[in-house]
Amino acid sequence: MAEIQLSTPQKRKLRSNSTPSPMQSSSAKWKSPRRCVKDCPKSPMQGNFGDKTINMTKSPVKKRLPESFLQKPMWNPRDVEQLNAVKEALHVSTPPATATVVCREVEYNRVLDFCKQSVEQDKAGSLYICGCPGTGKSLSIEKVKEVLVNWANESALQTPDLLSLSCTSLSNTSDIFGKILDKIHPRRKANGSMSPLQYLQKMSSQKQQSTGRKMMLIIADEMDYLITKDRTVLHDLFILTTFPFSRFILIGIANAIDLADRFLPKLQSLNCKPAVITYRAYSKDQIIPILQQRLEAFPYTVFQPQALELCARKVASASGDMRKALSVCRSAIEMLEGEIRDSIYSLQLPSLKMRLSDQQRGGACDKSPIQESGVVRVDHVAIALSKAYKSPVVDTIQSLPQHQQIILCSALKLFRGKKKDATIGELNISYVDVCKSTLIPPVGIMELSNMCRVLGDQGILKVGQAREDKLRRVTLKVDEADITFALQGIRLFRNYLQQL
Predict the structure, then answer these.
(1) What does the DSSP assignment read for 271-335?
(2) How far apart are the first and last CA of the chain?
(3) Does the predicted model carry a pTM greater than 0.90?
(4) What confidence tier does 15 reach under pLDDT thresholds 50, 70, 90?
(5) For residues 385 and 488, is the Cβ–Cβ distance under 8 A?
(6) CA 83 to CA 332: how far, in whole Å?
């Protein structure tokens, strides 16, 4: 006990003594490994910041954001040249500067390899490309055409002839064969005894007529038109690639994914089934780098990163249409432009002019409202998104009772990527599944049928006639994107819609 009592005051004396003890002097020289890193002479942040230094370097937000968005200065939207350049870069018709299509490298390489193999082996073939609008189909094909010609020249191969046409521009679906024949023989007059299709079939069947002719890459965009109007023309077009001496490389492009299921079985029976490449809707993680790629060439920051993320998230959840994302971004820029225009107008008022001159005398006019708003913010994009997707249909759906909203969510699940109509009995099965996942007790099938009638009266559903309610067929009369956008703002459906 005596030793303890003697040691205690001794420790207190050492702590209160102003002269540093050997232990104190040694501890002053010792530094923790974490602080040693911060005190390195090469470290960009020096000084006695204490714990604040560590907290500043641990910002999780800045680490996740691209360096190009953090290091570049904000742009000046009052500069007309900068404004027009950014708008042009975000225009749908402006092709990206990259050699390939961003986030579509796999699909692009498959199409390019198919074309290269056909040219290299002098082998005819067909390819069918399908996907929703705005998923990069046409853009990929434009890049493929450009790269294919350069590759053929570098490889000392015969460059194929290129024919691109939109099927919707044809007054008659069979005119597509006349377009192909005009590309081969531009000055050839029509022969009354032989149609263009018959002449192409004869050319592809005889070796002497095909010898010396170039391979021809035919790109038929909007092929949906041929499928819906005259399926015989579609079959004859693909059959052209199966003749023994055919020189045609056919690439068909269509928007609807399910159309392949309608005509592919018939083509398979005719031994002319094409290879199929599907372009899926863009996800949020794909839309963001595409937007960044279009903006990275500028030496300034145009958008808040959070604003681009909001645009990508909303567009991906609604449709995945990249054209819509570009349109929203341009609309947000126009809102910033209008905001700056209003600020300039307000500064030109006489009272504000006098106040501004007073500030200039005092040297306190460095910051203006215009300079503070020199970047596209989240609120600009939110308003642009609301204008892009908001409609009377969206307002109506958001004001519906909960069970009617569940019915529409069930219809989305039932129709997405599949058939476009179903019976009330089939809809009821999907409805019960949604109710179980959202922990809401379902109603009976009779009450479900009555609610479908109500939705039919409001123009959202179309309900057919049948002897029994459960056999009535139900069809959506509004765009699926409007339903998705209306329901995604409701927490009950948010997680469920992301799984569809």
Answers:
(1) T-PPEEEEEPPPPHHHHHHHHHHHHTTSSSB-B-HHHHHHHHHHHHHHT--HHHHHHHHHHHHHH
(2) 76
(3) no
(4) very low
(5) no
(6) 12
